[in-house]
Specification:
alpha+beta, two-stranded parallel ribbon, two-stranded antiparallel ribbon
Length: 191
Amino acid sequence: MGAVAATVAIAWPMSLAPASAITGARAPSGLAYSSASSHSVQRQPARGSCHAVGVGLYSRPDPRCTPGTVNPAVTQATIGSTICRSGWTATVRPPVSITEPEKLASMAAYGLRGSPSAYEYDHLVPLELGGATNDPRNLWPEPDYATRSGFYRNPKDRLENSLKRMVCRAAMTLAHAQRLIAANWAAPSGG
């Protein structure tokens, strides 16, 4: 995981890096813990500095800009009172008044033009798996896949729900699910 820390240092000038990027605190998954507040707009990477990997349904965020980070309040020991409790994510999700300006700045970082409604400001490690709530290292403008009938749930959403069910049934550890989703969720083996 040392390579991830090095890319974070390159992608984030130390003066702008969240505290956890500086301290290097790591979860059992190997991902950095986040200390970013859900109550204030977070700085995003520089305009044009991030580039999505792939295109279409299986595009992924730039791992230098969006390597994934996790919420320190969600651990294997706390999943019963956090992610496995119905409605918990609504209690930690930042308000649109915070995420909308972040989404626009993140779109600029990824060099994306067009309507913000064409993108979902998505958590790489989802809240349902203990992802950091408002850390720019865990959020990116994921293309939205609208159809004539409206919003299309992309394949990552289905995988997130399956992994959460497995974690809550004790069929998989939280750390393993976080690693799978952050490493390369689109790969057939998850990594």
